[in-house]
Amino acid sequence: MDLDQFSPVPRCDCPHTHPSLIADAHQDMPAEEMLYDLAELYKVFGDSTRIKILYALFEAEMCVCDIAALLNMTQSAISHQLRVLKQSKLVKFRREGKAIFYSLADDHVRTIIDMGMEHLCE
Amino acid sequence: MDLDQFSPVPRCDCPHTHPSLIADAHQDMPAEEMLYDLAELYKVFGDSTRIKILYALFEAEMCVCDIAALLNMTQSAISHQLRVLKQSKLVKFRREGKAIFYSLADDHVRTIIDMGMEHLCE
DNA sequence: ATAACGCATGAACAGTTGTTCATACGTTTA
DNA sequence: TAAACGTATGAACAACTGTTCATGCGTTAT
């Protein structure tokens, strides 16, 4: 990892500070880039429109205008959000004539959303 | 759910549109408020500083100045982020004298982060 | 009491995000 | 080829987010 990102020595005089503990956490911290990418992934789930799109695709593959009709939103807005979901490899698509059908990329998506729901319902 | 949030009938002339499919997705869609809360939860994971804090707490409970030292950030910034994590019930805390020790609220947190990492490493 | 320490909080700022609007692209049909 | 349709994209705007700075609160030690 990028060691410069983290200070190896605590800089406060807090008597409860345990330098070895900080060193351990420092050691086990994933690489800066990995942490950034992970946050970026969750950012994608952090919008209710995109969550709705994913829930819609739980049902079956859908074309853009289907999703727009279902969510009562403009085609443009849905297309923009599908682009984000596509970039994070959360959805895939196939063309059929003029229409483009979107579907979930894999089962991970559902698992992640279910985990969040579980946390909410505790 | 709040039925007014979704249009029950598709408004495009797309020949691939399946009204019954949209009706099904409409039926299975969780309540608007639930979807909003779920997005809010993921928004909390959608920041690398907060991700780092959670990873730090995987190791052990820590006081604010420990975390600030580990991440090489100001105490204020960490405190603000801990507030967000606290509000989402992702971390809990206990006071010991002047220091306040934060720790993970439950195992859900780790599971959710691990799921994200798995998706990234595919 | 009063000073010192650890932490929380409000205001303010720059940077980011989601939607709308207008328009362009790719495919199909006439 | 030209028109129609489904979708993608760029610009622009308001709304939101994370950090910093200054300051205040609660606890402990002198």
Please render the helix and strand layout as text.
2 copies of one chain form a homodimer.
Chain A: H1 19-28, H2 32-45, H3 48-59, E1 62-63, H4 64-71, H5 75-87, E2 91-96, E3 99-104, H6 108-120
Antiparallel strand pairs in A: 1-3, 2-3
Helix pairs in contact in A: 4-5
Chain A binds a DNA duplex (30 and 30 nucleotides) through residues 12-14, 16, 43, 47, 49, 63-65, 73-83, 95, 97-100.
Keywords:
mainly alpha; DNA-binding; 57% helix; homodimer; Arc Repressor Mutant, subunit A
Provide a compact summary of the structure:
Two copies of one chain form a homodimer. The first copy, chain A, is mainly alpha-helical and 122 residues long.
Descriptive overview:
The structure is a homodimer of 122-residue chains. Chain A is mainly alpha-helical. Chain A has a domain at 40-121: Arc Repressor Mutant, subunit A, CATH 1.10.10. Helix content of chain A is 57%, strand content 11%. Chain A is built from six helices and three strands. Chain A has helices spanning 19-28, 32-45, 48-59, 64-71, 75-87, 108-120, and strands at 62-63, 91-96, 99-104. A three-stranded antiparallel sheet of chain A has the order 1-3-2. In chain A, α4 (64-71) crosses α5. The model of chain A is unreliable at 1-11 (pLDDT under 50). Chain A binds a DNA duplex (30 and 30 nucleotides) through residues 12-14, 16, 43, 47, 49, 63-65, 73-83, 95, 97-100.
Output the radius of gyration of chain A.
20 Å
Shape of chain A: elongated
Task: Look at the structure and give the CATH class of the domain at 40-121 in chain A.
Answer: Mainly Alpha
Tell me the span between the first and last alpha carbons of chain A.
35 Å
DSSP helical segment count of chain A:
6
CATH domain topology of the domain at 40-121 in chain A: Arc Repressor Mutant, subunit A
Please identify the oligomeric state: homodimer
> What is the CATH superfamily classification of the domain at 40-121 in chain A?
Winged helix-like DNA-binding domain superfamily/Winged helix DNA-binding domain
Mean pLDDT of chain A: 88
Going by CATH, the architecture of the domain at 40-121 in chain A would be Orthogonal Bundle
Uncertain stretches of 5 or more adjacent residues of chain A: 1-11
Strands side by side in the biggest sheet of chain A: 1-3-2
Report the major sheet of chain A: 3 strands, antiparallel
> How many DSSP-defined strands of chain A?
3
The helical percent of chain A reads: 55-70%
